[in-house]
Amino acid sequence: MSIKKLGPEELLALDKFSVDEGQPHILVDKAICASCTPQVCLVVCPARCYRLKDGAVNFEYAGCLECGTCRIMCTEKGVTQWNYPRATFGVTFRCS
Ligand code: SF4
Ligand code: SF4
User: Fold this and answer.
1) d(CA 30, CA 73)
2) Which residues line ligand 2 (CB under 6 A)?
3) What residue's CA is closest to ligand 2, atom 7?
């Protein structure tokens, strides 16, 4: 029997998200992001919740894996709120 090895994209696709619409668990200050040079969030977020859109950093919390990396790595204090999602919301990790 052979076991298929899944890549990061395939593994992420297995996860299930229950999005708390209208109540983001992470808040980002767009004004701070606009003057941020390092923009480390673009490379450290494993879920690519931070992306460049029309030259500005855009944040979308829906696919967040709740790893906390952006909270630690944002040196410019652009992440102004970081909480886990409310009970029953957020990511459910699933294995193949
Ligand atoms: S979230 Fe932090 S690292 Fe990312 S652009 Fe905003 S200030 Fe910069
Ligand atoms: S907590 Fe992790 S997955 Fe969620 S936005 Fe921050 S870096 Fe991305």
Assistant:
1) 17
2) 26, 45-47, 49, 64-70
3) 45
Q: In degrees rounded to 5, what are phi and psi of residue 57?
A: -75, 125
The correct answer on CATH 3.30.70.20 for the domain covering 17-83 is: yes
pLDDT tens-digit map of 27-82: 999 999 999 999 999 999 999 999 999 999 999 999 999 999 999 999 999 999 99
pLDDT tier at 96 (50, 70, 90 boundaries)?
low
Alpha carbons 45 and 43: distance in angstroms, whole number:
6
More confident call, 7 vs 70: 70
| Residue spans per domain, the chain | 17-83
Instruction: Choose one of 66, 75, 93 to mutate for the ligand 2 pocket test, by most ligand atoms within 8 angstroms of C-beta.
Output: 66
Look-up of token digits 């990790």: 93
Atom of ligand 2 nearest to the CA of 61: 5
